Amino acid sequence: MTAYVALLRAVNVAGTGKLPMSELKRMGEECGFGQVRTFIASGNLLLTSDLDEAEVRARVAARIAGHFGKPVPVFVRSAGEMTALVTGNPFTDDKPSRVMAHVIDEPPTAAMLAEARQVGGERMALGPRAIYVSYGEGIGTSKLKLPAVAAGTARNMNSVAKMAALLADMA
User: Fold this and answer.
1) pTM here?
2) Which residues have a Cβ under 8 Å from the Cβ of 80 and sit 6 or more positions away?
3) pLDDT tens column, 136-150
């Protein structure tokens, strides 16, 4: 049995991507996953399954698409991968709330970082199927344009660390 988190893009409790976390939990249970729970109201579904990552993603994506009537990007990471995101954070000198792990589908490359525009005080680094960005003064004032993460989803390092710990307890 593997512990996974399914990270949904642009899902929250209000606005256009409204999805109550109780509904997300129910969807996970209907997919047949074990130990289903959510973490904060931003589209994080923690679960256990004997299925591989691709099948977990397919099942969650199908349920979410049925709810919204359109596809919603879903990114699945194992407990080990979430721990690797935490231990690989190169910006431990910044507040965890100001460091984002932008989760993407493919392994990141230096060329992706080279495409960044309007870089102010932000620092960027490659991670495991993610790009770390330290926003220094805060994400709210950043003008950073990073095309490689446009189709991904991001979580701050406080959330990543907490989910990694929760998943480790589930494994």
Assistant:
1) 0.93
2) none
3) 888 888 999 999 999
